[in-house]
Design a protein that fits this description.
The protein contains one helix and eleven strands, in the order βββββββββαββ. It is mainly beta. 36% of the residues are buried.
Amino acid sequence: VQLQASGGGLVQAGGSLRLSCATSGGTFSKHTMGWFRQAPGKEREFVAAIRGRSSTAYSDSVKGRFIISRDNANNTTYLQMSILNYGDTAVYYCAAGSAVTLATMTQRRWYNYWGQGTQVTVSS
């Protein structure tokens, strides 16, 4: 399974961005898809995940601002990010895994495949 993240960039605080993660190989619809992020000097942290068509999980820091979705016909996962703030600045990684519960969807160890990351920079 290969994942290719795109859509990052520089945006002003309060703005929006949409990240995409194109997946090839494997059976996309069977994977739980997740987004994680890593800021300089910090651990990689969970952002959002989606299992099946509509089972989603979000970190508290992005809940209400970010929306994760997937297009099984095009093997693509999206992360719509709104009301961005400086704390959202990070490299964003998409991942595919086998998590099946809400708790495991938020844990890195349940994701077997990772994309290369896309940089999101929010300016104040």
